[in-house]
């Protein structure tokens, strides 16, 4: 990884903004191959007000969204130069398994890798880890299009 991927660079690549940007940092990115991304889960997240009061758990769909955002960063950095301004659209998810709750104080590490790349469609597999333990796994598909 030759470029630094802090939150400013991430926001240059993704259209998401607070409260919906789910990636804090990219730890590793190999275009066309894989990405390792990080999200710090804090009690300040707006979804914890209602999910669930007195027992805060990060919604599984938001963990999948974060995996999708990590995958979108990988896809964006893997596109040819003339397509790098394209939006990445989430298409589907398969083989999703939620193995353990994610709570405030956890640090999520997302590992996404390409399975297939065709024309405008990418298929990736990924895991979300907390303290090295698999908390979510899934296969995701996305496509890119015009902004």
- How many structural domains in the coordinates? 1
Distance between the termini: 26 Å
- Based on helices, strands and strand pairing, what is the structural class? alpha+beta
**Strand percentage, roughly?**
35-45%
| Radius of gyration, whole Å | 15 Å
DSSP helical segment count? 2
CATH class: Alpha Beta
Care to count the β-strands? 6
Shape: globular
Mean pLDDT: 93
- Provide the CATH topology: Thiol Ester Dehydrase, Chain A
Biggest sheet strand line-up: 1-2-4-5-6-3
What does this structure look like?
The chain has 2 helices and 6 strands, in the order αββαββββ. The protein is an alpha+beta fold. It has a single domain (7-145), classed as Thiol Ester Dehydrase, Chain A. A 6-stranded antiparallel beta sheet has the order 1-2-4-5-6-3, covered by helices on one side. A hairpin with a 2-residue loop joins β5 and β6. The longest helix has 19 residues, at 60-78. The protein is globular, with a radius of gyration of 15 Å. The relative contact order is 0.20.
């Amino acid at each position: 990884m030759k470029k630094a991927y802090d939150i400013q660079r991430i926001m240059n690549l993704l259209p998401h903004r607070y409260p919906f940007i789910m990636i804090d940092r990219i730890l590793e990115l190999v275009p066309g191959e894989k990405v390792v991304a990080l999200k710090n889960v804090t009690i300040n997240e707006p979804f914890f007000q209602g999910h669930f009061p007195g027992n805060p758990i990060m919604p599984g769909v938001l963990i999948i969204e974060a995996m999708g955002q990590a995958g979108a960063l990988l896809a964006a950095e893997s596109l040819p130069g003339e397509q790098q301004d394209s939006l990445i659209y989430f298409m589907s998810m398969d083989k999703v398994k939620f193995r353990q709750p994610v709570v405030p104080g956890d640090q999520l590490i997302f590992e996404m890798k390409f399975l297939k790349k065709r024309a405008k469609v990418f298929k990736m597999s990924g895991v979300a880890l907390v303290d090295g333990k698999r908390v979510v796994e899934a296969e995701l598909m996305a496509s890119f299009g015009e902004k």
